[in-house]
Amino acid sequence: MSIAQLAGQPRAKRILQHALSSGKVSHAYLFSGPPGSGRLKMAMAFAKALFCEQGGDDACGHCLECRKFEHGNQPDLHLVEPDGSSIKIDQIRELQRELAYRNIHAARKVYIMQRAETMTLQAANSLLKFLEEPQSPLVAILLTDNGQAMLPTIRSRTQLVPFVPLAPQAMLQALADEGHPQLPARAAVQLASGLDACRALIQQNGFAEMRNVVIQLGKDSLNRFTAAMLSLQQIMKTELAEQPQLLLSLLALWYKDMIHFQAGRQESLVFIDQLDWIGKHAYARPAEGWVACMEHTLEAGKRIRAHVSPQLALEQLLIRVQEG
């Protein structure tokens, strides 16, 4: 995978590709952004480009170094991740020992540190010495959810590369390119942060079935109260009952689709296969009424987290939706 092939993050790509094309690669980078924003994949793609023999603004994918990298045979790439809950000073010392060995064939060495904010104070201070006296062919890539949690002295010695949450449309396109079915993917990108979480949700047993259940429950909840209650009782007897929060999240998206339709945003519908039904029923309530349905759904989720019985919370939700 090359930098250009990764989904989203145009600003991060510009920073890294400019560094590669200009030859002004920093000795240390801080990739800061939320989980699911693709920091590790970008770090790996950047590292691959750093080793590439072609010397352009991205990895060529064909040279010997790129092939070695793709097969996991790049000895000059070092990965560091927390040992338990933190990155400890012994890990930094071991990294320094490994990087001290000279490789006459290597143009540079690269290390990628995941969850860099978990470094102990001793580990961070040890790394700081390393950053203050950089070895010219060495590139550090530190990954963190929160750049502000890093020592200011480390932040000042690294180049910040900011990451933002991936836009749902960008994730949807990436999932489509990978061959994932459109209907579950449209729901997943609204529920999960990041492509890995989306893939896991789509592949989860029962997700497609849960989506179908929510469609029926959403329809019945508006004007077929008895049918909705019977459907709910049947659901609570199945394995789907083990994921009430997922059911509620999907149901909130169902009501949100009514607002999208009223606003003329049909392309934003999650339940796009129900366009005809939604078109006939979206104006049964004003937008404020659908917002109220979403609020009732979120409130049911809060009650379940407060240890109210899921069945009771869902039954009360259906009553409130029916009442408007």
From TrEMBL:
Top-level lineage group: Bacteria
Pfam families, per database record: DNA_pol3_delta2 (PF13177), DNApol3-delta_C (PF09115)
Domain DNA polymerase III delta subunit C-terminal: 229-322
Gene Ontology MF terms: DNA-directed DNA polymerase activity
The enzyme's E.C. designation: 2.7.7.7
Enzyme category, top tier: transferase
InterPro entries: DNA_pol_HolB, DNA_pol_III_delta_C, DNA_Rep/Repair_Clamp_Loader, P-loop_NTPase
Catalysed transformations (reactions): DNA(n) + a 2'-deoxyribonucleoside 5'-triphosphate = DNA(n+1) + diphosphate
The keyword Nucleotidyltransferase is annotated on this UniProt entry: yes
Keywords, comma-separated and alphabetical: DNA replication, DNA-directed DNA polymerase, Nucleotidyltransferase, Transferase
Name of the protein described by the UniProt record: DNA polymerase III subunit delta'
Organism expressing this protein natively: Paenibacillus artemisiicola
